[in-house]
Structures are given as C-alpha cells and as structure tokens.
Amino acid sequence: xxxxxxxxxxxxxxxxxxxxxxxxxxxxxxxxxxxxxxxxxxxxxxxxxxxxxxxxxxxxxxxxxxxxxxxxxxxxxxxxxxxxxxxxxxxxxxxxxxxxxxxxxxxxxxxxxxxxxxxxxxxxxxxxxxxxxxxxxxxxxxxxxxxxxxxxxxxxxxxxxxxxxxxxxxxxxxxxxxxxxxxxxxxxxxxxxxxxxxxxxxxxxxxxxxxxxxxxxxxxxxxxxxxxxxxxxxxxxxxxxxxxxxxxxxxxxxxxxxxxxxxxxxxxxxxxxxxxxxxxxxxxxxxxxxxxxxxxxxxxxxxxxxxxxxxxxxxxxxxxxxxxxxxxxxxxxxxxxxxxxxxxxxxxxxxxxxxxxxxxxxxxxxxxxxxxxxxxxxxxxxxxxxxxxxxxxxxxxxxxxxxxxxxxxxxxxxxxxxxxxxxxxxxxxxxxxxxxxxxxxxxxxxxxxxxxxxxxxxxxxx
Length: 462
Prior knowledge:
With about 450 residues, the protein is an alpha/beta fold. Helices cover about 15% and strands about 25% of the residues. The chain has an eight-stranded mixed beta sheet.
C-alpha cells in the first residue's frame, strides 16, 4: 500500500486546500461537462499568467505549455444549484441549456451571492462569483489550441497492447471512492493488474471520499486505463501520488489549458502517458480485455473516451465498464446484449441509449459508483418523487433492459458503493463508516480474495 497526503506535486491545484483566496479577474476556459441545464463545469487558466508564461512570449522562445503550466494559476469553475442555489438555477436556465463549444474568455467579478463557484484547489472551498462569458478571439483560440496540443503523446495500437501485456482478468472490484470512479482489475491469484479509472470525489463532493480508504495497491505496477479526462476519474492519483508514476493509457481528447492539462502534463513528466487516437469504434484487445473507442458527439469528453469490456468464457456474458459514456456511444453494444456485470454508466446519471441486459437473471450485477448525498444527485433514481412522481430516465432504461433495480434501497441486481460496511455481509450504512467496494465476477469463478500484503483496504464488502 502506498499512502501520502496531498502534496500538489503535479500542481498546487491538486494539493491541500489553501483557505480563502482572491478569485481571478479573467480566465481562458473550456466547458468540459454539464447535464441539460443541471450544472456547467469549466476548466480554466488565469489569463494574466497564461499571457505572461506563454501567449506573450515570442514564439521562437516559447517553451511548451506542459513545461509552464505548473507555474500558472488554474481553476475549476462550476455553476451548480447544490452549491449556489437559486442564483445558479437562474443562470443555468438562461445560459446553461446547451454545451458551449470552443475556447471561452470569461470575466469574473466577486459576488458572495453569485451563481458560480471558483475552485483554486480541487478539494477546497470555492469563492462565489458572477461570470460573463464570450468566445475567445480567433487569434487567442489558435494560441490556446497550440498550448493544449498533446498529440506528441499519441501512440500506435501496438504500443498500448505491449504496455497492457496479455491480461487475464478474473474479477473486478468497483472501488468505493465516493463521488467518482475507480475499478481494480484482478488476476486469478487476486493481484491488482490494472485499473480502469483512478478517481474520487472532488470539489463540492470531496467529502464523499471514504476515510477508510487509506491507500491503493500499486505493488504489481498496474497500468491505468483512463476512460476520459474528468477530474473525478483521475484524482485518486493525487491522493496517492505514487500512482502518477504508473503507465497511463488515455484517450486523446481536446483538453483545456487548466487542471486537465496540468494532470496530463504531470503524468507525462513522471511516467508513460500513452494517448489512444483511434477512430471511433476501434477495438484493442489484450488477453480477455477489450478497449473500445466511443463514438459520441465530438467535443463531449464523457462520450468520446474509452469503454472497457472484460470477457468471460464462451458461455458467460462479458463485463462492461463504460465510464461516463452513453450506451449509444459503444458501437459493439448491440440491442439487448447480455452482460454478466455492468458498472452503470455515468454513476447512474444520464447515459444516452439502452444499457445491456443481465445475462443471468438474478445473478448478474449492476454496480453504481457514486458518493452519498452528492451534489449531482447521482444516481438519478434519487429524483423519483415518493408519491406519484415519475421515474428518472436513467432508472427506466435499466429496468426496461431487464435489471431489477430498487429505490430507495438496493434490490436484487444492483450494488451501490454508498452502501458501506465494516466487512462482507455486515449491515450497510449509506455514506457511513467502512467501505462499499463491490465484487464483479463470473459464476463459478474462484473469487480469490485480495491477496496482496501491501495493506490496501480493497477486499469487497458486497
């Protein structure tokens, strides 16, 4: 087990909270996530520091942004009613119904009652502000494109196959990391040989990280397969910084010049960063693992990342780990395909298309990874109105596909990481002490216990 406090080694943004701070007056940013007006998230860099370190430097003397970003002030900017209440609702109704493509030039004014939260650290308290958004000039957009270019780390499929080796995955642990995603892939002897995502709760949901998860197993140098570049899918590597030195396989996506880019640059500096630039629908196989490039709308990081299949025997359905992609975005997922296990897409939030069906009625498992009482209301089954209300689309799609899903408590098929226990079979406590790790495996699997002597608390409790 390797455990360290946050030290901000990649960038101070990923370190310990600093307390109250003065928000920037102006940033360059990209919209990186939002859900139909429910919230909007921007990845940003302070405009003054970007000009000083990069844009205003004569081109012949301009160092790559990956060498300069650590000295820049970078921010996450979010409009979310869970943080800013009615002010955020009003802003989202007016401005947040559609994604905002391209590079943005955002003016910021301090406002304790404003609709927007600005974070100068990924787990600290935000400053409340008001914002005014316009598109960056064409000239500045070209400079920002140049600064954020990561194509030098794009590799051929064979390089990724070599990095993965011939994996033989016997079971998957869906780890309780709060409002985030991390999945440990185990070999037959019970060793962690790869991760699919290595994230955890961030920003307003930083407190959902379970105190009982005191470290990660890195003993066998497992590669990390990153489904996409959202903070809650990679931030465990800032809680356990030794994970930054692993080999990271990630999709080549358009990143902003703020925290996303800083994370990518930090990984590239410390380890192997292998970016997969395959066309949508491409499949890369390693042992019984299949990586599939998702075919979602251009510019949507959730839906253009990597989905991961883990194949069982010919008579057993595969496991599917789609990250935050829509089911519609996974080309090899045909209608009514059966799976032995499903890590439910997008933490149980919105996911376009129809999920696969359970291949073993009453025996297949749907694992929901989310933090108790999180600010995004995941899973969206939580939005059911107790008396006569409508069931959320996310829940309806699963039940239509044949999964037996319960509300408010888990039913036959699903398991939820918020349901924490002191040990397997012990009473659960949503959001309480203990851990909510979930084991996914095939019928007849030997279910080897987590055998590493590193001390990482990984043994599933459900």
